[in-house]
Structure formats: structure tokens, C-alpha cells
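Onboarding guide, step 5: your first structure request.
Type a short instruction followed by the sequence, for example:

Predict the 3D structure of this protein.
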Amino acid sequence: MTSVGYRQLWAADPGGWRAAGAAWAGLTGPVERRAGELGGATGRLRDGWSGAAATAADARLAGLRDELTSVVPALIEADQVLAELAGRLVVAKARLGSAVALADASGLVVDRAGGVHVDPTRVRPTERAGLAAARVAAALRDALDRAGAADRTAADRLDELARAARSGWASPPPPGRPAPGAAPALARAWWAGLTPAQRRWLVAHEPTLVGRLDGVPVAARDQANRLRLGAWREELLAERRRLLTRVPPGPAASARLRGVAARLAGLEALAGRLVAAGEPRAYLLGLDAAGEGRVVMALGDPDHADRVLTYVPGMTAGLDDAPGELGRAARVLDRCAALAPGERSSAVLWLDYDAPDFLPEAASAGQARDAGPALHRFQEGLRASHEGPPARQTVLGHSYGSLVVGMAAREHGLAADALVFVGSPGVGAAHAAELGLPPGQVWASSAPDDVIRLARPADELARRALLGAAPLTAVLGWPDRGGHELWFGHDPADPGFGGRVFPSDRRGHAGYWDPGNPALDGMARVVLGR
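The system replies with C-alpha cells like these:
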């Protein structure tokens, strides 16, 4: 299809394409199980058979297993292509609907072929009506052009997959790899210099490298990291088995066992989100099951979005509660879709740092400072891998995460068009001008009943509570004594900080994402640049 007609777009079902992609991705499970069965058969043959025939059979089984596993990235890629097509059709249909609504409001009629005409029963055919018809026709053409471009892109990518299946799926790349932590521009240039077959070989054979390289396209990182989900799951299961064999387990081992169970539950919930057929599609950009666990996951493809949000959570965040933190990013994304249905937005949960677990840790800026280089590199990677006109990039920090964002911006610089701080204990700066962005693009909100407002270094009770010498309940009931200096600098929600402020209801420290809270719309409007 070279173009999309009015009736075609009106009748198009993005959900059907999304479901088709999920069906392709759903085949990865059976393929991986079959490959595992072949691996088991190979092992049994080695135990009881030797000689030339045994060696030949072993090689043949290993070859079949490799052929099967090499298909998995293609199944994931088909899902990516169809999910992206569905997302772009959603935007095109929203623009089509807006154009039709504009026609109706202007007393115009859109016929079944997409032609625009004056309705003589409502308005007279004047010059003004002609100008309105031209505006509607242009809006219709924009929607159809977007749908046509989406269709052509998807068709080209699927054709390339089909050609690769016939002519040779993967081939080893030349020597030389970017080092872990390489500059995103360098990683992007290296990737661009590879053939599609070489890229597929790397995804299949070196997923650890591809999955964590900032600057490599999001689609490739997602494929590589999905291939590693089983290894991460096994890592946690092995840790649980080790703890269960300890006799007696002891309180420390029991606490670790509960932590492993919580991380396993978080991993399974994220894995479930990865295979869900709903909108938007999830992209796994990084995961680490060690320690408290880390994860970077996008909702919607940042490489093709008009607006990209990076959300950095705060204290106690880890793999166990990553699904809940992802839900917060999703709620902002939902509001973006409601406020601007004709634009493509993406939201990323960035939990690639060691968040403090206890108040004494949170009283230090050390972990925020350590996170700065990685956040800087990630944002640079989003810029490097993005396709088309640059997206508007917003970085949002909550609680201790706002300190991570603030210190990264001040000490390393962030590839961002706006910064947002909610529930902040301070961002490591005395004024918005220190953060490297125009002060008009630095935003903050603090709920009137957010306990973080009480964390002032001049107050001994707050200091003792944060350092563990007094219970937090003492601070929760403690009156706000005023002032604008917080634990880590000037309150960014104070106009005197030099940024801009949006309101929040009295929802406490975690209520900024609650439905109906004006803070939720405030965050979405910053992401959209409105």
C-alpha cells in the first residue's frame, strides 16, 4: 500500500495489529522450550553414545538448536514493528477525528472519500467557509499522510525480515566493540556501521553488550534484554535455593529470602507487562537482578516518540516495587494521551541506580552523586538513537530521585528540555539557573501535607529523624515551621528557587499520581510542553 485512504483509516483497527504482534512474540516461549528440549537430548546422547556417528548427531542437534534460538529475535522484532504501526495508527486516527470534529464545528461535511464540502443547510459558501474547508482538508491530509508513512515503514521492515529469512539471517560482525559505558554517540555510530545481519548476530550472541549500550536503538536493546529474562529469573531462583539450604536460616537469611521473593515477584510482573498486548508496548532497556535490583523500561518507543519522559524514583525503589513505579510513569503517559491524542509520547522508568533503603542513607547525597554519570549517559543515548525530528525530553524526579536528577543536571548536564521535581528534599542547587536549562523549563510541585517539606537541616528533630535517632512518626506530626531551605538545598517548589511551580492537592508524599490530583496534569503538561 503506497497511500492510505480516508475510509481505510477510519476503519483501521490498531488493536488488531497490536494483537497480531503479540501473537508473534508469544511464539518465543514454545521456540525456547523446544530449543531447551534439544539441548537436553544432546546431553543425553553425550552420556550414552560415542564415536563418529555420535559426534555427527551432536553437531546436528546443536545446529538445530542454534537455528531455533536465532528465530527468537525475529519474533520479537515482528511484535515491535506491528506495535509501532498500531501506535502510529492511533495517532493518525486521533488526528482524523479532530479534523472531522473541526469540519462539523465549521458547518462542513466530510464525504465518504474524504472530500470536504460546505453544508448549505448550516452555512453559506463564503470566503470564510472556503478557508475553513482548506484547513480541514489539510488536517485530513496530515492524518492520512501519517498513516501512509506508518504503513510503508512497517511494510519495509517486514519485507526485510522476510528477505533475511530466505538469504541468511545473521552473520558475525567485524572485531571491535564499544566498551561498557562508551559514549552514546560512539555506540550509535558503531551500530549504524553494521549490516542488519550483523546486528541480529550481536543481539542473539552478545545480548549483555547490546542490551546496556546507551545510543544503540531501543528496538535492539529490547530484543537483547528479553533474551536474558530467563537468565535473570534463574539468578534469583538460584539465590533463593542457596538461602533455603542454610540450616538454621537465621533472621538475616530470612530477611534476604523475603527480599529475593519480592524481587522475583517484581521480575515476573515486569515480564508479564512485556508480553501484554495492550497499548503502549513495553521496551526493556536494562535489568539487573543483583542487590536490590535495577530496571530501565519504556512504555512506547522513545526512538519514535514526539515527547519522552524519563522518570527517576526515590528512596527504597528496587526491582521489587518497579511495577508500581512503572505504573506512575504510565499514569503520566495516560494523561499525555488524553491531553494530546494526536501526538506520540513515551515514558521511561529509569531505576538504574542504588536508591537508599533507609533514612540515614537518604540523608546523604552520595548515592545521588554516584547515579549522575549513568543518568547523563542514558539521556544522551535517547538523543543519539532517536529517529526523525528531536523529541521533547523531560526528566522527572520524585523524592530522593529529584536529588539524582538535580545533581546529574548540575554536575554532568542532562540532554533534556525540561526538568520536573515532585516531593523533593532539595535538588543539590540553590537556584534553577544552576541546572543548565532555562529557568522557565524547571518545574516543581510539593503537596501541602508532604512530610518531605519538614526535612530542614536547621531543625534538630528532622535531622535526628532522618539519621534514625528519632522515629519518623515524630516528624509526621511535627508542624511546618516555614522557610525554604530543605535538606539538599533550596526548595525547588518555592518561587524563590527561580523555576516554575504547579499545584498539588493534599495527597501526601506519594499522591502526586493520584487520579484527580492537579499535579498529575501538571506533570503531563510539562512533558507535552504546554
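Each response can be followed by summary notes, for example: The longest strand covers residues 282-288.
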